Amino acid sequence: MGRVACPGSFDPATNGHLDIIRRAALLHDEVIVVVGANLAKHGLFTVEERVSMLEEVTSDLPNVSVGTFRGLLVDFCRSNGVSAIVKGLRAVSDFEYEMEMAQMNYRLAQIETLFMTANPLYSFLRSSLVREIATYGGDITSLV
Ligand code: PNS
Fold this sequence. Notes:
- By secondary structure, this protein is α/β, with parallel strands linked by helices.
- Helix content is 40%, strand content 22%.
- It has a five-stranded parallel β-sheet with strand order 3-2-1-4-5, with helices on both faces.
- Helix 4 links the parallel strand 4 (84-89) and strand 5.
- The radius of gyration is 15 Å and the shape is globular.
- Bound molecules: 4'-phosphopantetheine.
- 4'-phosphopantetheine binds at residues 7-9, 36, 38, 72-73, 101, 104-105.
């Protein structure tokens, strides 16, 4: 499989995201990590900050690049030669939402979605919890 996209909000990227990105990079020629800019103004970090953090943590992966997209993910995929979207599934609770998006993205543009099961070490990890813990002074060093 050639070029795939790992899309997300990444506000901020967690070790769970990084685990999926690393594993995707082993399976595919090229991985583009793309930060969705549509809702970014409501987030904690700016799009530029998210991109910069992702670039830093993926700098040892030669076939991974980081970008942004605005609008529909499938439009980004079409105009950048992306053949599939790669997403991580942590638990059954992720499944319904992710399946809806995958089916809609296929309906819109025949873009496939490939799911990877999350590393159990990170199945409890999500960016909103990291933000909350950090806001109240908790230790997030092993999470991001
Ligand atoms: O980190 P998240 O919140 O799971 O990322 C979700 C994201 C950004 C991948 C998703 O919301 C998305 O693709 N948004 C772009 C708009 C779009 O294409 N919407 C239709 C999805 S079927």
